Structure formats: C-alpha cells, structure tokens
C-alpha cells in the first residue's frame, strides 16, 4: 500500500497553494527562514508549527504567537489535526488534507526550470528553498558571477510566487543611459523632457500586481538610489515631470555580479538601499563550482539546440575552467550547431569552439597531445571556415562575421592576418565591407 501524502493548503485570493508536509516539523510564519514562508500579513515570524509524530498523526502547536491560531473556529495552543480541519492564522486560511481527493487549484506546485535536481549539495539546498522564498513578499537579492543564471532564477521566483499570474518586468540598470533610467523605472509625463512626446508608464506601473526584476542593480546611478529607496519604503512613486504620487504594488527581485559591500565602502552604493533589497539572498554558484551538474546542463543544452558531441569532446569541455559560466557553455553549443550542423562534434573541432588561451587544459593528456602535434590546427580550421563563409557570402564581411558569430572587427583582423593565404580568393573576388 502506497504512503498517503498530507498537505497544508493555503487559501488566498481565490487560489489554493498546497504545501506537502513531508518533514518531521514544519514551521509556518512570515520569516524567510520558515519552512512555509507566508506573504506579509498579521502573523509572527515563527507563528506555529506542524509536527508529524507518526504516519498519520499530525499535531499543530502555537509558537507563542501574538494573535494565536484557530482550528475550526476554536483557539488552541496544541491540537491533533484531522483531514479537512480548517486553520485560521491572522489573515490566512489553511486546510489540512490528505491526497485521497484530487486537489483543485489555480496555483499548482511548479518545478523550477533551472536544473532542480542539482547534484551540488549547497545549490540543491538553495533550489529547494526557492518555492518558499518565492511565496513570501520580501525583496530578494540574487548575487553571482555573470552567466550563472541570475535572470533565470528571478523568473523561477516569479513563477513560484503568489503573483505568478501578474506581469514579470525586467529592467537592466547597466543597459540604459543615466538620463533614461529614472523614466524607465518611474515613467514620465508628456513634455517633461526633450523627446517626451506622450505620457509613459514606468516599470513600477507596468509590473503592478507582479514582479519587478532589477538586473545589475550595482550599476544604478547613485543619485537615483535615493529615489528607488523612497519608492520601496513608501510604496509610492512619482513620474518624471509629474506632481502626482502613485501607490505601487510590486514584488522586487534584484541581481548583481558586483561586491556591493565594496561599493558601499567607496560611497558608490547606499547602505540603506542595500539592506532594503537584501532581505533574502540567493547566491548562484559559478559553473566550475558545480561541475557535478555539468553533464545534466550540457545534455539539456544539446537537446534544446539539437547538436551532438562525442564522448572525448565532452571530456575536453569538462576540463575547461568556464570563466563565462553557463552562458559561455550555451554559446559553445550554439556555435557548434552553427558551424558543424548535423555532424558529431569531436575533440578536434572543440579547439575551434572554445578559447583555451588560459592554458587550463595543458595538463589534460589528450589535449596536450593535440596541442603539441597540431599547434596550428585552430588557425587552419579558422582560415578554412572564414574562406568558406566569405565564398558563400560573395566576399561580404558583415554577413560573414554574423554567420561565424564573431565581431566584425575580429574578422577584419583575421582577414589581414591570413592575407597571404587568402590572396587567391581576393584575386577572384573583391572582399567587401
């Protein structure tokens, strides 16, 4: 006979969110450290807990809360739970159930699309707590090197939050000119500055009822940090050029690859804004710190992009230091698909796909052999690919650079470097810019 699962179902905004009670003790409250972290409401940080004392024996206990807990309308300090018992805690309604009935819910339990079954112990523990973090209303700061999936983590938080039906809006604080960031965040009214030909809603208004993701928050200009802090503290904004104050309704998730403590010391980042954003912290690890997951990540990317690698090729890739993290790995797989099509990518082809200039593979026997005996292999393959694409594009360097996935300036340098080898091609066809 299969084991019966028991759930604590949260009823909120005409939605049901089921929490599986699979721990000996499950703590519930508005603290981010609680097993079930509630949105902000009239509950204590650790309000109550549910203890499992047997396969079907569950007990609820009040943790000296200020407003108490009510079972079927009766206040209790401790009581045994039975299926279909109603639990009222502050503003929140729960129901204790088992899985004898199919749960009907508008807020199903979601799986994170960021390799939830990670083999890295530390990252696995973080991933397992993300659903509870997501269901709280506290700001979250995601910290980690570039290319480690910070934006993907932010999307997973939104998808697992109680705001999942609302909009998800991303603002990259490093990608906008300083004079445009304020308008991007708070909006503007017609005529407030040159080029403001009509009223425009900012990200805070566009993300109303949902999640606002502030990427690269460390690059936010210092003079705007005070305005962002005021918007977070007062939950209100004022559009550029307007004297009207608008109440906000967003959940803030931010991310950075920078050391904000160092920026605070150098007076480049406000400490009060940092502590406002850093209520909950998630650290995304570099790829070389979670190589246990490399095979799963690599196979998923290959399946998505539809490219095949030989075993030896994959072995070479695993020996790389991956300074660009998962983004670099995805670029390598994409480049392989573009250059080699339906071929199986072998270890010789890898040398044209990955930058091994750091020398991190010198001690790898098979790579050492290739590098020693065929030192010019990369250049020969590169020349061949450049020549093939130039011929296909009738000498058009702009299109060739796009096809090869390299900057046009780099292609110009390569053409000059290989001029003697390309002389016959240049005689037969004018290479155009």
Account of the protein in words:
The chain is an alpha/beta fold and 433 residues long. The protein folds into four domains: 6-98, Tumour Suppressor Smad4; 121-283, Rossmann fold, CATH 3.40.50.300; 288-375, Orthogonal Bundle (Helicase, Ruva Protein, domain 3), CATH 1.10.8.60; 380-428, Orthogonal Bundle (Arc Repressor Mutant, subunit A). The protein is 35% helix and 20% strand. It is built from 16 helices and 20 strands. It has helices at residues 121-135, 150-159, 178-186, 203-206, 222-234, 260-265, 271-277, 294-305, 311-318, 325-340, 347-350, 365-373, 377-392, 397-404, 408-417, 423-428, and strands at 6-12, 15-20, 25-29, 36-37, 48-52, 58-62, 69-71, 74-76, 78-80, 85-89, 92-98, 140-143, 168-172, 211-215, 236-238, 245-247, 251-256, 280-283, 308-309, 344-345. The longest helix is centred in the C-terminal third of the chain and has 16 residues, at 325-340. The chain starts with 5 loop residues before the first strand and ends in a 5-residue tail after the last helix.
